[in-house]
Amino acid sequence: MADAISQAVIGKLTEMIVQHAAGEAALVRNFNRDFQWLKKRLRTISGGLKYTDKLPTREDDIKEWLQNVRDVAWDAEDIVEECAVRPLYTRSATQSCICSPDELLFRYKMGKRIQEVKEAIDSITKDGKQLKLFRDLVPSGFEPPSSSSAWEARKGNRILPSYPVAIEPKIQHLISIIDESTVPVIAVVGMGGAGKTFLLQHLFDRIKERYELSIWLSISQSYSVQQLQCDLVSHMDLEVDDVSEDRAAELINADLQGKKYLIVLDDVWTSARGGNIIRNLGLSIGHESQCKLLVTTRNRDVCQNLGAKIYEMELLSEEESWQLFCFHAFPDYNQNLPPPYLEKVARHVEKQCDGLPLALKTIGASLSGCTDTRKWSSKLSQLKELELSQQKEVADPDYRIIEILRLSYDSLPSALKPCFSCLSFFHEDEIIDCEYLINLWIMEGFIIQRKDQWDIALGYLYQLANLCLLDVWEEWGLIKYCKIHDFLFDLAIGISKENRCAFAVEDDFTAVKRILLPKKAIDDVVTDPKKSSCPRSLRTLSLHNNPLTKIEANFLSPIRLLRVLDLSETKISSLPYCLGKLKLLKLLNLSSTKVEEVPICVRSLKSLVFLDLNLCRQLRRLPEWIGELKCLRHLNVKYCKDELRNHVPKGISELLSLRVLRSDDLRLSVEDDGLLKLDDAVKLTHLQELSLQLKHENELKSIEDGILRQLVEIRHLSIASRLSTESHLPENITALQDLETLNVKKFVVPSWVSILINLRQLILFYCICSDYPALETMPNLVELKIYGNTNCRELPKAFVKSSGFPKLRFLLIEDFPLLEELPDLEDGAMAVLEKFRLRECPKLKKVPEGLERLRRLKEFNYFDSGTDEFRETLSEGGQVRKKIKAKNPHVYFMR
Question: What pTM was computed for the model?
């Protein structure tokens, strides 16, 4: 009945428009023509912005004109996307018919908006001509860059090595202070960007082995004591959930009593809060204690309140600055000196950075590979102009640094600029999951739509890292996490606010496109239905890590153009039904919330591409209607209730666009009971990630018959056996040519696994094995983990032969109760190994010879492993340990 009434009202309204607005009815008749014009013009405007981003933006009239261009581009893009998703929401052939009242009304509204955009473009054209800019706004024949001209191919991406200038003397000096000083708190003081954190990272890795407990905590300007306490106890065998801060401090203090520990508090800002931070966290360090607290800060008052011994962080000398700058500006600097015609300019550029490592690295990296004298001279002129402008007033040193770093941002390719500014959308000091960041870029439209857009985005990430605009961590050879320096974070915030394109915590939300709401804003805006809501044009809203329990409907209902909604780590258990009206929503993050089922309103989100339910501990199953989300490409249901593994709805097989199905090992059905079967999963031909647990012989038979050969795009595969008999994994899995990670559980170790030449990560979990295959021949293997072999007494000697495991960085051998001997390493074996972990191998008799040849080894872990004699040789002062340390002093031993 309600639908019939709605149709009648819409029909009557449309009839009135047609009858009484005959002069405007042409908007409906010309809809297709105008829509095609708008799509073409949107590409033209985007091409113009690629040029105008390079213009000097300090002129007020140019800044205003640029913002007008962006506003028009956003409006036009909104229209195009609303029209593009229209077919997903037409419920019948009648509705989609051009003659239907509903369709006529939609086209009339869109036509009106297109007309408004046309008028705005005419105004921009007029203003652009007056500024002599418009000729550059409409470049002829604008086309997006091809993948070959844009970035390296996916497998060619790599992180350039770091170059620690003048770091060793500082480390040694700090070690001597730690050894000789009776003061338990030592503070490294220096201006932002001077390398305080970089120095302590190297020091921490060097000395953490001396302590029973070693913990690193990052402190932001607006830190939460409760969150810091949670971060602290994550390294301890302690729970402080649902207790007050004072009670948590008591528990932490009691647990630390009698322990020798090292704790780093990185980037403490204010003296008032800094003075209380030790007590607030529950740390108790007396002068008689062997425990140490290391602090980095820009504020000397912090040191006084902590009673700390101060280590002054000096800036680099002229020669040290030159070395660091040249390393980043000239990648082949060690082999070839800078070209003579650039050296003079380079010296001037380096001098302007005043010995500040962060500025030297970012400016140098932005010029890397360039032999164009004009670009170098331009950079020098910009630095000199900046210096002159700041001489006119007493400038804040922090402001000067940010403005210097801004020159690196100005040098970015236009495609990378929104990607960088988007980093302001995360919290200060947050460790960012790179996969989520890339998905955010894609959902926001920063990456051009094409088949290889993920690889292009990954290339952007590597580019930002190599330009020293991001700190990154890799996992099995690919970037996994990243973090942004606080100065660069401030730069990203400033740029975003200028452009009204990302990040806003403002009293007035009307002018922004993307909002990150902290706690203080939530109480005032989100939960109070009387407060003003967010603007209709808002594209992204993040409430990540806030204590929300609900969102009022009137807050969400006006935001009809929202693309991204992040509610992760809130206490939300339900969502308002109006969420289903967000027709353009592409990314919904509900990870670590209290939802017990996927909210029914999600069913209406036909444009949804990314749905994250990771760590929803109370989620028991997925709904049967999940298959209606036809655009879904990424579904994460990892670490939910165990029941979910057994209740995977058959509707998932209808998600033909699905690329990532991230889960614990799924137990698929063998009955026609409405649940997913392996035969159904074969429809998902674009799937790149899949985890299965086989519990029936016919499922194994399906794999033997080659069913996985149809999933040709699989890159990450996990297969676990619950079969009653000893089972062999079929060799036809080798048909998966792009396979990068393989996790095999409780199967016979496959003899063919070494054929997978593109494999980066291999995990063998309690697999049956009489003899390991030639794993050492795998050319791209970065990470190898072998768990639980109850029969093995000795690993194959081939594992450690010369040139074996050429790219292996991480090796784990765990739960080998009979393992007595590791073969000696030949020269050249495991040449790039960084972490070697032996866990629960109690019968090991001796440390293998040749470990000292592993010059890149950073960690040797022998937890619950080895006989007394084995452990004695690796203890402080042990012969083997001294031998290894003599060749590689940076190795960290952990037992």
Answer: 0.82
